[in-house]
Write a structure and sequence with these properties.
By secondary structure, this protein is mainly alpha-helical. It is 91% helix and 0% strand. The chain has five helices and no strands. Helix 2 runs antiparallel to helix 3 and helix 3 runs antiparallel to helix 4. The longest helix is centred in the N-terminal third of the chain and has 59 residues.
Amino acid sequence: MIPKRTAFFIFIILLAVVLAGCGQSSLSKARELIDQANAHIEKANELDNEAEDIGKEIEALPNDAAGDQDAMKLGEQLNEKSKSIEKEQKEALKLFKRGKRLDLPKDSKEYFELETKASEAAVDLSESLVELTTLSLQLTEKIANGTLTQEEFSSFEEKFMKLNEKITKEDEKHTTAEMTADEFFKEKEIKKELERK
């Protein structure tokens, strides 16, 4: 009878060790996912700064045929930067979604949920910015080629106004979601929670 009881206790101890190891693995994976997602977000921010610089170059161009041609070239670069930002944001979103599926303490799990929402808002915003740069490129091309009609101009103007409203709302949504996630991270000391085990 004693060997069975001893065997049972050994089994319980081994089970506890295995389960503790699983938790540690999840916490380690969570830290890794956060680091990888943040790297994608940092890259998106770098690309955004580069896109802003291109936008300033476009604004400084002369309003003539040569300026229109240069605007088209820079517009293509701006469009590609916007697409790259979108790609980086989508990669960060994938990582946060993976983190939500890990076996984590409650607050860490909620943090991944909040970051997922912020990343979803960032993806929506980046998709709209790609739409904006694409529309701008189309308008610039028509201006450069001298084929823009008054009717087309009015259509572009309406599209820009609607898109601008959409971008403003998406930017506010993203900013709010990101601030909520950041405040939760600090308030609940998520970094400490992820480093505990």
